[in-house]
Here is the input.
Amino acid sequence: MKNILKRIQNITLNIIRAFKEDRKYKKQAENTLELRKVKISDYERWKNTEELFVDWNQRTAILASMITKGANIIEFGAGNMALKNHIPPDCSYTPSDIYKRSEEMLECDLNSRIEFTLDPYDTAVFSGVFEYVYDVDKVFRQLSDSIDNVVLSYACSDVSNADRLRSGWLSDYSKKELEDIFEKYNYQIAEYKEWRNQSIYNLRQSSVK
Here is the structure.
């Protein structure tokens, strides 16, 4: 009898959890639609450190493996700065994010403009960031004069089967549309991998040997 009651209790708890999760993601989808109308970033979401998931660190490690020794790195959307623990020891590292989470972190909203100079850096990293950027072309336009290497991940609309609105994603680039932007700004694909149906790119300016 106790086992039956315990099973019933577990089933009930699972139903409640599923209901709460569904309600959460429906609310997220509604919020995403509102954000897309006015073309602003989701400031409230990224205030919450609970949105910085530990399992993203696996993707971060893959991106870090593409970074060359001695690189001068600027990371956008640095979050908990996990990248710092994976890069080669002789690299310099500067984090940036929409919220300044530490003294060393630069504040940057990629749906606005990059307000600091990129001259000290030769490598830019975007780990799960461009999904929250409306105009990726605009970002690359700002990078192209200073940054030789770009390492990034993106859930392309024709590769990932994720619900983009429920994920809070603000852009819907296909793989070709994204790669057309790379080509436009003279970046060639040096390496390509996939992680959980996300595309991971190592880009180099074609003039760089």
The chain has one domain: 43-205.
